[in-house]
Amino acid sequence: QLLLILFIFIFTFFFYTFYNTFMYCFDICFPLVKTRHFENDMLPWFSNELRYERQNIIELNNLGRLTKNNELLKVTRKLNRDFKSNISKAKKEYVNNKISCSSNISKTTWKILNREIGSKNSTRNNIDKIHIGDVVHTNPSIISNLFNDYYINLVDNEIIPKVTHNSMPLPDTSLKQSGKFMCEPVNEAELLKIIMAFENKFSTGYDGVPIIVIKHAKDYLVKPLVHLINSSFISGIFPEKLKIAKIRPMHKKGCITDISNYRPLALLPVISKIYEKVMHNRLVRYFDGKKLFDSEQHGFRHGHSVTTAAADYIDSIINSIDQGEKVAGVLMDLHKAFDSVSPLILLDILSDLGIRGPVLKWLCSYLIDRQQFVELFTVNNHNVVSSKSKLKTVKYGVPQGSILGPILFICYLRGLPRVILNYTFKNICMFADDINLLIKGKSPFDLETSAIANLAKILHFLADHNILVNKSKTKVMQFFTKANNNIIPLHIHLDGTKIEEVSETKFLGLVVDNNLSWDQHVDYVAKKVSSGLFALYKLAKFCTVDTLRLVYFAHIHSNISFGLSIYGATSKKNLDRLLILQKRAIRTMLQLPSQSSVKEEFSNLNIMTVYSCYIYQCILYAKQNCKSTLLLGNNHSYETRNRNNFMIPSHKLKFFEKKTSYVGIKCINRLPSVFKNVTNYDKFTNMLKSYMLSKPLYSVEEFFEQM
Fold first, then answer.
1. Which residues, in sequence order, are bridge partners of residue 326?
2. How much is the average pLDDT of 435-455?
3. What GO terms describe the biological role, i.e. biological process, of this protein (predicted)?
């Protein structure tokens, strides 16, 4: 024990020596300066050379008018034409360079467009007053402390008093691990790779150090950081200086003077994130290797996404309807779930998962006694003034803005699916704190009975974990075919509150409706794409085709492709709406007449049509998720042409053909034989992408006709 205490003392001394030396050098190289804020109306592409050229033209023009020299005026007019051409060229170079070098093309595009159309940015995050009861506070220092107090006491004031605990214990769903997690030391090569993988950002924690500085100094920092990180893991101590978060309140919606309408944006020191990333990589390898994550949990896991979560859930609904069952979904909303995590409960769960010894001690040190302060910036007489609240200790939650936080949260909810009665893999779908329960039965009464019983179990589990369900935002929805109109409303209560039944709602980023027609979602996507078309139209005057293509992918392709493997099962009329918008975008980018054909231009620009993208996504989903589907050749030993094709699932209803997996299997079977023997998923993906880019499809039927 004495040796351990000595080691801890030495480790702490080494870290503080390193950190203080680093910050001393940083402050010398990048001293803080006082800044003044002015509204900059100058055009960023208008260089000093252009200003000098303009001044010369003005002077020559004045001289020509004064002397009435026609030759001089003629020269002035020519210089003026050249000047306008130079302005246009400078503007094009600036805009193209700005967009092509941007890490957030969407944000950069709208900044340029807002300047172009004269729209000013909102100043909602310049918080100059806050209402607390009947009192209006305008002092920035008081406001920052009010925000910090609100965030610190949120769980104690708004969550815990409303959580209803059940005295009857739930069955143990933890599935304790007998093995033990072994934390490997980090080496210089791995740490360099981790540092360089961070995105180049200039946001900083309380110490003011951006990741870009760490990257430039990596060769000098890597050796001491390797030693410090390994010592930290051995001693089980996470440095106190790395446990301080800087909070910036960001306005969400509603009244700008209401403190509850601001979400906290947490900024952590970059060195803390390097420590976290090293541990994160080891924990994820361990959890994946031991298969410790719930299969139903799609959040923050490799190979899983919002799309895989939604596709699994929708496929389960369609399966049940095809089998003649009544189906309903309960879409649950958790209130401040990440902020409500109890560190002590989380540490017990991690211990059950095999995280013990120094690593558990390290995670305890990482989670306990964290501190935060709120920083506000206000502009006063052109001076940018920073107001900071007092430091306060955080009692609950996984650290916001952290790398370890999300993975620890999904560990926190581990075991939730197994509390469901008659538990099967497809009864529930989770994406982080989005919990979606699927209930089915032979009658509406069966649905109500099953829903009430299972919701009680889920509510019990969440209450034991200090998490509150937002009853007003929790919805229930029945699913059925358009031919089945005889639907009886459900009466499902959650802890005494009736859950609202809806015919459409937002589900994992998609607008889902009773019939899975996806009409409302296509309306939503079309509005987003139209906004992107406006951006293309405005930028087409001074951007190259390559730059416009980047804007297309940021504003149009991203909106169309999100969840397309699911909502692509909508009507041809709906997909044609999106295809028409895509064609309009291509014509705008290439400055083509409104009636010209652009089918070949999709391939030339390496852009998929909405139909090509739909088939591409469905094939990839089936390739990754339908590995257990039997091949036709498994039924016989004959060398037939289709022996490497998948068996098409049998079904009763046309409705079944909306399934992402069904469409994917059908399309895989129609691919050329060169695809059939490719087992490497990455190679298959690249081959398929090239193949689909070469086929600008205007319908799904066209894919099957061409094969």
1. 441
2. 92
3. DNA biosynthetic process
Phi and psi torsions of 342, nearest 5° = -85, 115
User: Cα–Cα–Cα angle for 675, 649, 611, nearest 5°?
Assistant: 55
- Contact partners, residue 617, CB within 8 Å, separation at least 6: 307, 561, 564, 565, 568, 660
In the DSSP assignment, the letter for residue 521 is H
Give the relative orientation of helices 545-552 and 519-539 as an angle to the nearest 10 degrees.
160
The percentage of the chain sitting over the pLDDT mark of 90, rounded to a whole number, equals 62
20: tokens are 């203080």
How far is Cα 509 from Cα 483, in angstroms, rounded to an integer?
27
* 646 secondary structure, DSSP code: B
| Residue 630 pLDDT | 53
How many residues in the chain?
707
pTM: predicted TM-score of the whole model, two decimal places: 0.88
The bridge status of strand 370-380 relative to strand 392-394 is antiparallel
Tokens (6 digits) for 265: 């944006």
C-alpha–C-alpha distance, residues 509 and 310, integer Å: 9
CB proximity list for 430: less than 8 A, separation 6 or greater: 294, 296, 297, 298, 299, 309, 413, 416, 417, 436
Interval 332-354: pLDDT, tens: 999 999 999 999 999 999 999 99
SS3 484: coil
Tell me how far CA of residue 9 lies from CA of 192, 377, 379, in angstroms.
27, 38, 44
Tokens, residue 69: 């020299």
Beta carbons of 299 and 406 less than 8 angstroms apart: yes
